[in-house]
Amino acid sequence: MAAIEVTYEVNDAAINFLGSRLETLAFDEIARTLTILLFDLERHIKEVTYPRSGLHIRSGDLQRSIRAQPVERTARSVVGRVIAGQGLAYARIQEYGGTITAKNTEFLAIPLDAAKTDAGVARFAPRQAEGEGYKTFVAKSIIFGRRPGEDAVPLFLLRRSVKIPARPYMRPAMKDFQPRILRDIARAVNLVASRIPR
After folding, report:
1. HSE (CB half, 13 Å, CA atoms) of 128?
2. Could you tell me if 80 and 170 lie in one domain?
3. Could you say which of 32, 81, 103, 112 would form a disulfide bridge with 69 (CB–CB 3.0 to 4.6 Å)?
4. What is the pLDDT of residue 7?
5. 181 and 124 housed in the same domain
6. Count of structural domains within the chain
7. What's CA 32's distance to the chain center, in Å?
8. Are residues 8 and 43 in the same domain?
9. Which domain holds residue 57?
10. 155 and 73 housed in the same domain
11. How far apart, in whole angstroms, are the C-alpha atoms of residue 1 and residue 86?
12. Phi, psi at residue 28, to the nearest 5°?
């Protein structure tokens, strides 16, 4: 899972300055402001930074998983998050890059054109090739398949590990949004502070 977290914390001086009633008003205003910001940030990730990242939309699961979470309040803070990829093992590695290593088998099987859909997703796993009408064999770290009366075609490339380049979609959004977040939170605090009797 990948996540962006925005936290507003108050210190003792702020609490003393605002007083308990105004502190509650400040938290209410900040929570309201942060809720709006998070939904706008979610939309920005989906519509701007995700397409800009170079990620291809295959199943659409990762892009659909990008969600603003309900704002949480503690006694001294307001916390908001936008998460992506809950339950999707590849969400974090797409954001940061890294190496995927075969775990439960000796090799990773990377689908080649004959085993992929038009969207670039595997149509079947190597063990399912026979059900697709292929008789398989391995040569030079490639699983080939041959259907009766046809030439053999490469189906899967076998690798012990694969390096995945970073394709950040969350971090650029935060960079884009940081000035607005700081401005809108400051505006919310100033709005409440303006209500303090002089």
Report:
1. 7
2. yes
3. 81
4. 84
5. no
6. 2
7. 24
8. yes
9. 2-95+165-193
10. no
11. 5
12. -60, -45
Distance between CA 169 and CA 94 in Å, rounded? 8
pTM for this predicted structure: 0.77
> Which residue's structure tokens are 């605002």?
18
Yes or no: say if 162 and 115 are a contact pair by the CB < 8 Å rule. Answer: no
Which residue type sits at 150?
Answer: E
Please check whether residue 59 is in contact with residue 119, taking contact to mean a CB–CB distance below 8 angstroms. yes
Same domain, 14 and 80: yes
Task: Note the pLDDT of residue 25.
Answer: 73
**Is 51 a member of any domain?**
yes
Same domain, yes or no: 152 and 123? yes
Look at residue 8 in the predicted model and tell me its pLDDT.
Answer: 75
20 within 8 A of 63, measured Cβ to Cβ: no
Q: What token pair was written down for 185?
A: 């939170």
Mapping DSSP onto H, E and C, the string for 61-125 reads HHHHHCEECCCEECCCEEEEEEEECCCCCCHHHHHHCEEEECCCCCCEEEECHHHECCCCCECCC
- Indicate whether 16 and 49 sit together in one domain: yes
Indicate whether 75 and 132 sit together in one domain. no
How many CB atoms within 10 Å of residue 9? 10
> Is pLDDT above 70 for 11?
no
Whether pLDDT at 12 is above 70: no
Asked if residue 114 has pLDDT above 90, the reply is yes
